[in-house]
């Protein structure tokens, strides 16, 4: 298994895989419809989105956690 010290890197990697995959699939479908070569168009968009999503999630998630902690009511 992977050591806990790599939790944020692993979280960012897995989250970016899912989110960039799903979002690029939806946006590709909205823009092109289900055309010949759809999977190829989608995969091109997917890897480009992943390259942006991974570092973005890695940087943004800690900031979002801080904001959420300030917004929730502590009991």
Short structural summary:
The protein has 75 residues and is mostly helical. The chain has helices at 7-32, 38-71. The longest helix is centred in the last third of the chain and has 34 residues, at 38-71.
Kindly describe this structure.
- With 75 residues, this protein is an all-alpha fold.
- The chain has one domain.
- Helix content is 80%, strand content 0%.
- The chain has two helices and no strands.
- The N and C termini lie far apart (35 Å).
- 9% of the residues are buried.
- The model has no long low-confidence stretch (mean pLDDT 94).
Question: H/E series, N to C?
Answer: HH
Strand content: under 5%
Count of alpha/pi helices: 2
Shape: elongated
Rg measurement, Å: 16 Å
Distance between the termini: 35 Å
> Stretches where pLDDT falls below 50 for ≥5 residues?
none
Compute the average pLDDT: 94
| Beta strand count | 0
- The helicity comes to over 70%
Number of domains: 1
User: Can you summarize the main beta sheet?
Assistant: none
Assembly state of the chains shown? single chain
- Structural class, by secondary structure, is mainly alpha
List the helices and strands and how they pair.
Blueprint lengths: L6 H26 L5 H34 L4
Main traits of this protein?
single chain; mainly alpha
């Amino acid at each position: 298994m992977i050591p806990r010290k790599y939790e944020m890197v692993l979280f960012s990697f897995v989250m970016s895989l899912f989110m960039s995959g799903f979002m690029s699939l939806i946006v590709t479908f909205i823009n092109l419809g289900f055309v010949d070569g759809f999977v190829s168009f989608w995969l091109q968009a997917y890897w480009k989105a992943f390259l942006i999503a991974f570092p973005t999630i890695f940087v943004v998630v800690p900031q979002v956690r801080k904001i959420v902690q300030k917004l929730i009511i502590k009991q």
